[in-house]
Amino acid sequence: MARKSLIQRERKRQKLEQKYHLIRRSSKKEISKVPSLSDKWEIHGKLQSSPRNSAPTRLHRRCFLTGRPGANYRYFGLSGHILHEMVHACLLPGATRSSW
């Protein structure tokens, strides 16, 4: 189980990313449209003035149940360890254990 503070920090980053998503996207489009370099630098300064944690690259996928940050399967939203346990307990329909 991940520490509660790390999970809360990640939720805070998600909220910030959602809040600044439109602002970041519009300023990036604006940069590509503006021909002069000085105007591009001005817009880039605005983009940099937004909080660092509002950048989508700072987000991590975490396990839905445990909050574990690594070895996640996007399709299930679970870490590999929990996914393995759930498949063995027959809790995931359609998932089969490998046997040879």
Automatic annotation (TrEMBL):
Q: Does the keyword Transferase apply?
A: no
What does the UniProt keyword field contain?
Ribonucleoprotein, Ribosomal protein, RNA-binding, rRNA-binding
Q: What is this protein called?
A: Small ribosomal subunit protein uS14c
Molecular function via GO: rRNA binding; structural constituent of ribosome
Looking up Pfam families in the UniProt record yields:
Ribosomal_S14
On whether GTP-binding is a keyword of this UniProt record, the answer is: no
Instruction: Show the InterPro entries listed in the entry.
Output: Ribosomal_uS14, Ribosomal_uS14_bac/plastid
Which residues are listed as membrane-spanning? none
Q: What's the family?
A: Belongs to the universal ribosomal protein uS14 family.
* HAMAP family, A to Z: Ribosomal_uS14_1 (MF_00537)
Enumerate the Gene Ontology biological process terms.
translation
Could you name the domain of life of the organism this protein comes from? Eukaryota
Can you name a GO cellular component term?
ribosome
Q: Which organism is it from?
A: Vitis vinifera
